[in-house]
Amino acid sequence: MIIESKDISKPVRESADVCIIGSGCGGGASAKILAEAGKKVIVIEEGGYFKTDEFESTEEFAFSNLYRQRAGQATDNLAVTVLQGKCVGGSSTVNWTTSLRTPDFVLEQWAKEFGVKGMRTKDLDPYFMRIEKYLNVHVEPDENHNLQNRIILDGAKKLGYRAKATGRNTRDCAKIGACGFGCPIGAKMSVNVTYIPDAVKAGATIFSEFRADKIEVTGSQKKVLGAIVDRLTQKQVSDFVIEAPIVVVSASSIFSPVLLLKSKLANSSGQVGKHLTFHLTSALLGTFDRSMYPSSGIPQSALCDEFLNKNGDGGGFWMEAVPATPTLAALAIPGFGGEHRKLMQKYPSIGATIVLVKEIDSEGTVTVNDYGRPSISYDLGSRDLDYLKQGLKATAEVQFAAGAKEVLTLHARMTSFKSLDDIEKKLARADWGPNEIALYSAHPLGTCRMGEDARNSVVDSHCQTHDVKGLFVIDGSVTPTSLGVNPQITLLAISEKSAEWIVENFNRIVG
Amino acid sequence: MLNPGINDSYSRRRFLKQSTFGVLALSASRFFPVFDSGVNLPPQIVGQLRFFSPKEYLIVEAMADRMIGKLNDGAPSASQVDVPLRADKFLSGADPEIQEQFHQLLTVFNAPAFTFLFDFRLSSFINMKPEDQDTYLEDWMTSIIGFRRTGFQALKRVSLSMFYTESRSWKEIGFEGFDAPR
Ligand SMILES: Cc1cc2nc3c(=O)[nH]c(=O)nc-3n(C[C@H](O)[C@H](O)[C@H](O)COP(=O)(O)OP(=O)(O)OC[C@H]3O[C@@H](n4cnc5c(N)ncnc54)[C@H](O)[C@@H]3O)c2cc1C
Ligand code: SF4
Fold it and tell me: For residue A15, what are the β-bridge partners?
């Protein structure tokens, strides 16, 4: 059953075996496994519930209804925009369908440096296979790549760089291109149309427009307290208390630490909110002498992974296409006024390619501000900055090889190249401080990291907090390092595995 | 090793308050409230405002028109697409810390005391000539003071996002929306 705030007329008092906070990859997958194992599951979701035919396929609808802060959530100084979903299905509802397994070298690092157990490739492979089958992950045939993805495939091929089609979690995709606004025909196998309906079928209750504000622990019992909010005004209309012996915090890498910090729980290590990684992203905008249809067709279906961990230092970057819808393009295009507008008039001929850096020496922090909301900061390390510069250069090469006539970075001071000759010089002269180049993250991770040493991690290898038995964090917060790949399949695998462990050990945990 | 040049300036402080200068400017803004005296706004607009004061509305209107630009080719201006009213609606539902700082930002951005302090100009933003408004915005965008660059970003985000999410702005850029079979 899915219950929305409009269905509620009085305060809600409920109890369950497991209360899950958040309905994205972490919460949705956990809910399905636990409910199918016969547990009484309640899921609390702050955002709204929409049926697929209610998705209007416009930026206005999506930003207002499905995204955090109208897609404007950012670090405190607005230097890095942090995109996240806020709706049933979480960020998966608005994500771009790329479905990839965790790189081997990353899982090895987790085992070696953080003592993480049971998460090596051989342990996760059965989960990857099961999830890929469930979500119909497949690569698109060659003719299905749109012109934006062709830039990567064709440009990289000409240069001899490794590029390939990515896995996508879709079934009968009609290539509408609106994945980032909620797929209007339910072709995208996101959590809102897969795990959540299956969890509901197995008896789970989803409360949407319910915001958890605090978790209280008394003995082995826990209470989740919060506000029921009106969809339109976002004002509190009532309150709720859910009692359960097991609470799973799946509110995302930005909101899970906020909830733990506000509840003063699970932070004896002092690590809650620390080690935030972004998979730091910037872009290059090429102008072509033909129409590139920047927002038509499958938005993301190819990547170039030539430069990930190429030096064996665990860092590097890769390239992907991006749905450059009008507002996202307008915000990325440098400058303002007439000059900006002239560039916007070239919109149909823009080819946008993003560069995503797998961080090795950058980190962010999430703390709680005076209003009880996240305050996000980020320190960009010199090695990652260097990879970002290398990434922009390599991407410019790919763009030119694919036929771009001019290529623009996202620097506030307009920085463009007409040929490869002046790239290095111009990038060396460019400014790289906050708000001197537009930076993004759609993959924020970390902040409640996993490890076997309770002194420097928040949860163990089963995602149970070291400090509080029966309190779990299962979502993007738990990754000990930057992943270097789009995270949804990794997070679903960790979630399914951890939820299975809860089922197997239920009596021991609550006893 | 963190990059010493960048580490500091990306670090943790509130939106706009990320430098001593920003904190001082925002604190001082309390002493320069945006007075509405002499502001003549049609009652049908005043009646719709939920977040901006009438004077703030005029600041946003002037700023958004310069931010979006006008190319004399018949394409709509920011005000013709109701950017200030749409921004008012959005900000009326925004998180309280964003609301508080947006009010402060508009004061700092417009008040002659601050335009003088930043750029030795004696005029408020809304009373500047359009070319001067552009230069003033450019100064904010490329300022060596992080607080002003952040302020510029906040103004750019609100203006562009209210303009380009509106279907009336799409024809000019050749965007036809998504063709969703239902
Ligand atoms: C635009 C975009 C594109 C992306 N594209 C891809 C892609 O192509 N491939 C890929 O692998 N990944 C992609 N991602 C990332 C991926 O979707 C996320 O990493 C993943 O969904 C994170 O899962 P999560 O469970 O940690 O958090 P989320 O999925 O974000 O879910 C957290 C949920 O918790 C809710 N919540 C937060 N606080 C509270 C509270 N206090 N009370 C109740 N509920 C709360 C939120 O509203 C949200 O719904 C993309 C993300 C975005 C935003
Ligand atoms: S491209 Fe496919 S998955 Fe994405 S919105 Fe369109 S039909 Fe849905």
Answer: A243
Task: State whether A229 and A287 are in the same domain.
Answer: no
Ligand 2 first shell, C-beta below 6 A: A 97, 170, 173-179, 183, 185, 187-188, 298
In this structure, is residue A179 part of a structural domain?
no
User: Which domain does A46 fall in, by range?
Assistant: 2-64+85-136+184-272+447-510
Output the DSSP codes for A112-128: HHH---S-SHHHHHHHH
Q: Of all atoms in ligand 2, which is nearest to the CA of residue A298? A: 1
Picking from A441, A456, A481, the residue at the C-terminal end of a domain is A441
Q: Which of A399, A426, A441 is the last residue of a domain?
A: A441
**How many domains is chain A built from?**
2
Whether A368 and chain B come into contact, CB under 8 Å, resolves to no
Chain A positions touching B17 (Cβ under 8 A) are 76
Q: What is the pLDDT of residue B7?
A: 37
Select from A99, A169, A179 the residue to mutate for testing ligand 2; criterion: most ligand atoms less than 8 Å from CB: A179
In a domain, A75, yes or no: no
- pLDDT at site B71: 75
A80 within domain boundaries: no
DSSP B115-165: HHHHHS--S-GGGS-HHHHHHHHHHHHH-SSHHHHHHHHHHHHHHHHHHHT
CB contact under 8 A, A365 and B12: yes
Q: Is the pLDDT of residue B181 over 70?
A: no
Q: How confident is the model at residue B177 (pLDDT cuts 50, 70, 90)?
A: confident
CATH of the domain at A501: 3.50.50.60
ipTM computed for the complex = 0.90
| CB of A263 closer than 6 angstroms to any ligand 1 atom | no
DSSP secondary structure letters along A7-55 = G--S-EEEE-SEEEE--SHHHHHHHHHHHHTT--EEEEESSB---GGG-
Please indicate, yes or no, whether residues A22 and A40 belong to a single structural domain of this protein: yes
Length of chain B: 182
Task: Based on the fold, state whether residues A240 and A352 are members of the same structural domain.
Answer: no
At A128-149, the pLDDT tens digits run 999 999 999 999 999 999 999 9
Q: What does the pLDDT look like over A274-318, one tens digit per residue?
A: 999 999 999 999 999 998 988 889 999 999 999 999 999 999 999
CB A450 within 8 A of CB A476: no
Does B153 score more than 80 pLDDT? Answer: yes
Q: What does the alpha-carbon distance between residue A274 and residue A445 come to, in Å, rounded to a whole number?
A: 10
Q: Any idea what the CATH number is for the domain that residue A410 is in? A: 3.30.410
pLDDT higher than threshold 60 for residue B91: yes
Low pLDDT (below 50) residues in chain A: none
Same domain, yes or no: A253 and A381: no
Give pLDDT tens digits for A153-182.
Answer: 999 999 999 999 999 999 999 999 999 999
List the single residue in B with minimal CA-CA distance to A230.
B93
pTM here is: 0.94
Give all strands (DSSP E) within A250-324, no chain letters. 274-277, 281-287, 302-304, 316-321
Q: How far apart (Å, rounded) are the C-alpha atoms in residues A56 and B145?
A: 41
The size of chain A, in residues, is 511
Indicate yes or no: CB of A336 within 8 angstroms of CB of B157: no
Element (H, E) at A350: strand A350-358
**Nearest to A334, CA basis, from A443, A416, A220:** A416
Atom index in ligand 1 nearest the CA of residue A485 equals 11
- How many Å lie between the centroid of ligand 1 and the Cα of residue B119? 43
With a CB cutoff of 8 Å and minimum separation 6, the contacts of A139 are: A164, A165, A166, A167, A168, A301
- Judge if A407 and A259 occupy the same domain: no
- For the segment B137-162, the average pLDDT, to the nearest whole number, is 93
For residues A300 and A156, membership in a common domain is answered with yes
